[in-house]
Amino acid sequence: MITVRAPATSANLGSGFDVFGVALDRPADVIRVEKAPRTTISVTGAGSQYIPEDPDKNTVGAVAEALDAPAHIDIDKGVRPASGLGSSAASAAGAAVALNALYDRGLSREELVPVAGEGEAVVSGEAHVDNVAPAILGGFTIASGGDLTAVRARMPVVACLPEIAVSTRDARRVVPTQASIEDVVETVGNAATLTAGMCRNDPKLAGKGMDDPVVTPARAELITGYETVREGALAAGATGVTVSGAGPAVLALCREGNRRKVAREMVEGFADAGVEARAYQTRIGPGAELF
Fold first, then answer.
1. Is 141 a catalytic residue?
2. Which CATH number does 2-151 carry?
3. What is the residue-wise DSSP string for 92-130?
4. Which of 9, 118, 120, 187 is labelled catalytic?
Protein backbone atom coordinates (compact mmCIF):
# COMPACT_ATOMS: atom_id res chain seq x y z
CA MET A 1 0.00 0.00 0.00
CA ILE A 2 1.12 3.54 -0.81
CA THR A 3 -0.24 6.50 1.15
CA VAL A 4 -0.07 10.14 0.06
CA ARG A 5 -1.17 13.34 1.78
CA ALA A 6 -2.38 15.78 -0.88
CA PRO A 7 -2.94 19.42 0.12
CA ALA A 8 -5.74 21.86 -0.48
CA THR A 9 -4.87 24.55 -2.98
CA SER A 10 -6.00 28.01 -3.97
CA ALA A 11 -6.00 28.97 -7.64
CA ASN A 12 -6.06 32.32 -9.46
CA LEU A 13 -5.05 34.46 -6.44
CA GLY A 14 -7.04 37.27 -8.01
CA SER A 15 -4.79 38.51 -10.80
CA GLY A 16 -3.62 35.10 -12.08
CA PHE A 17 -6.82 33.59 -13.48
CA ASP A 18 -6.24 30.00 -14.68
CA VAL A 19 -2.47 30.48 -14.19
CA PHE A 20 -1.48 31.01 -10.53
CA GLY A 21 -1.91 28.59 -7.65
CA VAL A 22 -0.61 27.88 -4.15
CA ALA A 23 -0.50 24.76 -2.00
CA LEU A 24 -1.83 25.10 1.55
CA ASP A 25 -0.59 23.27 4.63
CA ARG A 26 -4.16 22.40 5.55
CA PRO A 27 -6.72 20.99 4.96
CA ALA A 28 -5.64 17.92 2.96
CA ASP A 29 -6.82 14.62 1.50
CA VAL A 30 -5.22 11.29 2.35
CA ILE A 31 -5.06 8.86 -0.58
CA ARG A 32 -4.22 5.14 -0.16
CA VAL A 33 -3.68 2.87 -3.16
CA GLU A 34 -3.21 -0.89 -3.59
CA LYS A 35 -2.72 -2.83 -6.82
CA ALA A 36 -5.87 -4.49 -8.13
CA PRO A 37 -7.10 -6.15 -11.35
CA ARG A 38 -9.37 -3.17 -11.97
CA THR A 39 -9.82 0.25 -10.43
CA THR A 40 -12.25 0.61 -7.55
CA ILE A 41 -12.77 3.65 -5.37
CA SER A 42 -13.99 4.27 -1.83
CA VAL A 43 -14.53 7.75 -0.42
CA THR A 44 -14.94 8.90 3.18
CA GLY A 45 -14.63 12.24 4.93
CA ALA A 46 -15.82 15.76 4.15
CA GLY A 47 -18.63 15.78 1.60
CA SER A 48 -17.99 12.15 0.65
CA GLN A 49 -21.71 11.57 0.13
CA TYR A 50 -21.58 13.84 -2.91
CA ILE A 51 -18.57 12.20 -4.56
CA PRO A 52 -19.16 9.35 -7.03
CA GLU A 53 -17.21 6.15 -6.52
CA ASP A 54 -17.65 5.12 -10.16
CA PRO A 55 -14.12 5.29 -11.71
CA ASP A 56 -15.60 6.84 -14.86
CA LYS A 57 -17.00 9.75 -12.84
CA ASN A 58 -14.25 10.31 -10.27
CA THR A 59 -11.04 12.28 -10.85
CA VAL A 60 -8.83 9.45 -9.60
CA GLY A 61 -10.35 6.99 -12.04
CA ALA A 62 -9.13 9.13 -14.95
CA VAL A 63 -5.68 9.32 -13.35
CA ALA A 64 -5.48 5.54 -12.94
CA GLU A 65 -6.48 5.08 -16.57
CA ALA A 66 -3.93 7.63 -17.79
CA LEU A 67 -1.14 5.84 -15.91
CA ASP A 68 -2.43 2.35 -16.83
CA ALA A 69 -2.35 1.64 -13.10
CA PRO A 70 -5.47 -0.19 -11.89
CA ALA A 71 -5.81 -0.08 -8.12
CA HIS A 72 -8.15 0.09 -5.20
CA ILE A 73 -8.05 3.78 -4.27
CA ASP A 74 -9.24 4.92 -0.86
CA ILE A 75 -9.84 8.66 -0.51
CA ASP A 76 -10.21 10.24 2.93
CA LYS A 77 -11.47 13.73 2.10
CA GLY A 78 -10.21 16.59 4.18
CA VAL A 79 -10.95 19.13 1.44
CA ARG A 80 -14.67 19.67 1.02
CA PRO A 81 -16.04 19.46 -2.54
CA ALA A 82 -17.28 22.72 -4.15
CA SER A 83 -15.16 24.73 -1.71
CA GLY A 84 -12.77 26.67 -3.94
CA LEU A 85 -9.88 24.89 -2.22
CA GLY A 86 -9.03 22.39 -4.95
CA SER A 87 -10.94 19.38 -3.63
CA SER A 88 -10.93 17.43 -6.88
CA ALA A 89 -7.33 18.49 -7.55
CA ALA A 90 -6.17 17.15 -4.18
CA SER A 91 -7.62 13.74 -4.99
CA ALA A 92 -6.25 13.73 -8.54
CA ALA A 93 -2.80 14.92 -7.48
CA GLY A 94 -2.60 12.46 -4.59
CA ALA A 95 -3.64 9.58 -6.82
CA ALA A 96 -1.10 10.55 -9.50
CA VAL A 97 1.77 10.64 -7.00
CA ALA A 98 0.64 7.45 -5.26
CA LEU A 99 0.06 5.38 -8.41
CA ASN A 100 3.31 6.58 -9.96
CA ALA A 101 5.11 5.19 -6.90
CA LEU A 102 2.98 2.03 -6.64
CA TYR A 103 3.69 1.01 -10.23
CA ASP A 104 7.18 2.53 -10.36
CA ARG A 105 6.30 4.52 -13.48
CA GLY A 106 9.28 6.82 -12.92
CA LEU A 107 7.53 10.05 -13.90
CA SER A 108 8.82 13.32 -12.46
CA ARG A 109 6.54 15.59 -10.45
CA GLU A 110 6.33 17.95 -13.44
CA GLU A 111 5.31 15.06 -15.70
CA LEU A 112 2.57 14.07 -13.27
CA VAL A 113 0.88 17.49 -13.47
CA PRO A 114 -0.84 16.92 -16.86
CA VAL A 115 -1.79 13.40 -15.74
CA ALA A 116 -3.59 14.83 -12.73
CA GLY A 117 -5.05 17.47 -15.03
CA GLU A 118 -6.87 14.69 -16.88
CA GLY A 119 -8.61 13.92 -13.62
CA GLU A 120 -9.68 17.55 -13.27
CA ALA A 121 -11.35 17.34 -16.68
CA VAL A 122 -13.83 14.85 -15.23
CA VAL A 123 -15.15 17.54 -12.88
CA SER A 124 -14.73 20.82 -14.79
CA GLY A 125 -14.89 19.59 -18.38
CA GLU A 126 -11.38 20.85 -19.14
CA ALA A 127 -7.91 19.70 -18.05
CA HIS A 128 -6.99 22.76 -15.98
CA VAL A 129 -3.76 22.44 -13.98
CA ASP A 130 -3.82 25.63 -11.88
CA ASN A 131 -4.84 23.56 -8.84
CA VAL A 132 -3.10 20.25 -9.53
CA ALA A 133 0.24 21.98 -10.20
CA PRO A 134 0.64 23.36 -6.65
CA ALA A 135 -0.96 20.20 -5.20
CA ILE A 136 1.90 18.18 -6.73
CA LEU A 137 4.78 20.67 -6.80
CA GLY A 138 3.99 22.72 -3.69
CA GLY A 139 4.54 26.43 -3.06
CA PHE A 140 3.44 29.03 -5.61
CA THR A 141 3.05 27.82 -9.16
CA ILE A 142 2.64 29.43 -12.56
CA ALA A 143 1.06 27.20 -15.21
CA SER A 144 0.78 28.71 -18.67
CA GLY A 145 0.80 27.21 -22.15
CA GLY A 146 2.13 23.88 -20.92
CA ASP A 147 5.01 25.52 -19.04
CA LEU A 148 5.34 25.16 -15.26
CA THR A 149 7.22 27.30 -12.76
CA ALA A 150 7.24 26.61 -9.02
CA VAL A 151 8.48 28.95 -6.28
CA ARG A 152 9.00 27.65 -2.75
CA ALA A 153 7.06 30.47 -1.12
CA ARG A 154 6.21 30.18 2.58
CA MET A 155 3.90 32.79 4.03
CA PRO A 156 0.89 32.87 6.36
CA VAL A 157 -2.58 32.43 4.88
CA VAL A 158 -6.15 32.28 6.11
CA ALA A 159 -8.66 30.35 4.01
CA CYS A 160 -12.21 31.01 5.17
CA LEU A 161 -14.82 28.53 3.95
CA PRO A 162 -18.52 29.47 4.25
CA GLU A 163 -21.30 26.89 4.37
CA ILE A 164 -22.45 27.62 0.85
CA ALA A 165 -21.56 25.88 -2.41
CA VAL A 166 -20.32 27.34 -5.68
CA SER A 167 -19.63 24.84 -8.45
CA THR A 168 -16.67 25.31 -10.77
CA ARG A 169 -18.98 25.17 -13.75
CA ASP A 170 -21.23 27.94 -12.38
CA ALA A 171 -18.24 30.09 -11.47
CA ARG A 172 -16.84 29.79 -14.99
CA ARG A 173 -20.16 30.84 -16.52
CA VAL A 174 -19.98 34.28 -14.89
CA VAL A 175 -16.44 35.06 -16.08
CA PRO A 176 -16.54 38.01 -18.53
CA THR A 177 -15.63 37.16 -22.11
CA GLN A 178 -14.20 40.64 -22.78
CA ALA A 179 -12.15 43.19 -20.83
CA SER A 180 -11.05 46.75 -21.47
CA ILE A 181 -7.42 47.45 -22.25
CA GLU A 182 -7.24 49.43 -18.99
CA ASP A 183 -8.35 46.39 -16.98
CA VAL A 184 -5.94 44.12 -18.85
CA VAL A 185 -3.01 46.45 -18.12
CA GLU A 186 -3.99 46.66 -14.44
CA THR A 187 -4.28 42.88 -14.17
CA VAL A 188 -0.90 42.28 -15.80
CA GLY A 189 0.74 44.77 -13.46
CA ASN A 190 -0.87 43.18 -10.43
CA ALA A 191 0.12 39.68 -11.54
CA ALA A 192 3.74 40.80 -11.91
CA THR A 193 3.64 42.38 -8.45
CA LEU A 194 2.19 39.23 -6.90
CA THR A 195 4.84 37.07 -8.54
CA ALA A 196 7.61 39.31 -7.24
CA GLY A 197 6.10 39.12 -3.77
CA MET A 198 5.98 35.34 -3.86
CA CYS A 199 9.60 35.14 -5.03
CA ARG A 200 10.64 37.40 -2.15
CA ASN A 201 8.34 35.74 0.44
CA ASP A 202 6.93 39.21 1.01
CA PRO A 203 3.25 39.08 2.07
CA LYS A 204 2.79 42.84 1.69
CA LEU A 205 4.02 42.88 -1.91
CA ALA A 206 2.20 39.68 -2.86
CA GLY A 207 -1.02 40.91 -1.29
CA LYS A 208 -0.80 44.19 -3.20
CA GLY A 209 -0.80 42.18 -6.43
CA MET A 210 -3.95 40.16 -5.69
CA ASP A 211 -6.42 42.79 -6.90
CA ASP A 212 -8.25 41.88 -10.10
CA PRO A 213 -10.80 44.11 -11.87
CA VAL A 214 -12.13 41.44 -14.24
CA VAL A 215 -12.82 37.95 -12.85
CA THR A 216 -12.99 38.42 -9.08
CA PRO A 217 -15.82 41.01 -9.04
CA ALA A 218 -17.99 38.67 -11.12
CA ARG A 219 -17.33 35.65 -8.92
CA ALA A 220 -17.69 37.64 -5.70
CA GLU A 221 -21.36 38.15 -6.60
CA LEU A 222 -21.88 34.41 -6.02
CA ILE A 223 -20.54 34.59 -2.43
CA THR A 224 -22.93 35.99 0.17
CA GLY A 225 -21.09 38.45 2.44
CA TYR A 226 -17.90 38.60 0.37
CA GLU A 227 -17.35 42.37 0.58
CA THR A 228 -17.94 42.44 4.34
CA VAL A 229 -15.50 39.55 4.81
CA ARG A 230 -12.89 41.19 2.58
CA GLU A 231 -13.11 44.55 4.34
CA GLY A 232 -12.92 42.92 7.76
CA ALA A 233 -9.86 40.88 6.84
CA LEU A 234 -8.02 43.91 5.46
CA ALA A 235 -8.90 45.94 8.56
CA ALA A 236 -7.50 43.10 10.70
CA GLY A 237 -4.16 43.25 8.90
CA ALA A 238 -4.51 40.98 5.86
CA THR A 239 -2.24 42.17 3.06
CA GLY A 240 -4.50 40.90 0.27
CA VAL A 241 -7.88 39.20 -0.03
CA THR A 242 -9.57 37.45 -2.95
CA VAL A 243 -11.88 34.63 -3.95
CA SER A 244 -10.12 31.28 -3.67
CA GLY A 245 -10.41 29.51 -7.00
CA ALA A 246 -14.04 29.30 -8.06
CA GLY A 247 -15.17 30.06 -4.50
CA PRO A 248 -16.90 30.16 -2.11
CA ALA A 249 -13.74 30.09 0.05
CA VAL A 250 -12.05 33.44 0.54
CA LEU A 251 -8.26 33.63 0.76
CA ALA A 252 -6.29 36.20 2.76
CA LEU A 253 -2.52 36.64 2.80
CA CYS A 254 -1.20 37.70 6.20
CA ARG A 255 1.91 38.62 8.12
CA GLU A 256 3.22 36.43 10.92
CA GLY A 257 1.27 37.03 14.09
CA ASN A 258 -2.05 38.32 12.73
CA ARG A 259 -3.62 35.19 11.26
CA ARG A 260 -5.85 34.63 14.29
CA LYS A 261 -7.29 38.14 14.15
CA VAL A 262 -7.82 37.92 10.39
CA ALA A 263 -9.49 34.52 10.73
CA ARG A 264 -11.83 35.80 13.45
CA GLU A 265 -12.87 38.83 11.40
CA MET A 266 -13.55 36.70 8.32
CA VAL A 267 -15.75 34.25 10.21
CA GLU A 268 -17.61 37.15 11.86
CA GLY A 269 -18.04 38.83 8.49
CA PHE A 270 -19.82 35.79 7.13
CA ALA A 271 -21.86 35.52 10.33
CA ASP A 272 -23.04 39.12 9.84
CA ALA A 273 -24.33 38.01 6.44
CA GLY A 274 -26.14 35.05 8.01
CA VAL A 275 -23.65 32.45 6.79
CA GLU A 276 -21.76 29.96 8.96
CA ALA A 277 -18.06 29.60 8.11
CA ARG A 278 -14.83 28.08 9.35
CA ALA A 279 -11.36 29.51 8.93
CA TYR A 280 -8.16 27.56 8.32
CA GLN A 281 -5.15 29.34 9.77
CA THR A 282 -2.53 27.90 7.47
CA ARG A 283 0.34 28.86 5.18
CA ILE A 284 1.67 28.21 1.71
CA GLY A 285 3.22 24.75 1.99
CA PRO A 286 4.58 21.67 0.24
CA GLY A 287 2.92 19.53 -2.40
CA ALA A 288 1.73 15.94 -2.14
CA GLU A 289 3.81 13.89 0.27
CA LEU A 290 4.40 10.14 0.39
CA PHE A 291 4.38 8.58 3.84
1. no
2. 3.30.230.10
3. HHHHHHHHHHHTT----HHHHHHHHHHHHHHHHSS---T
4. 120
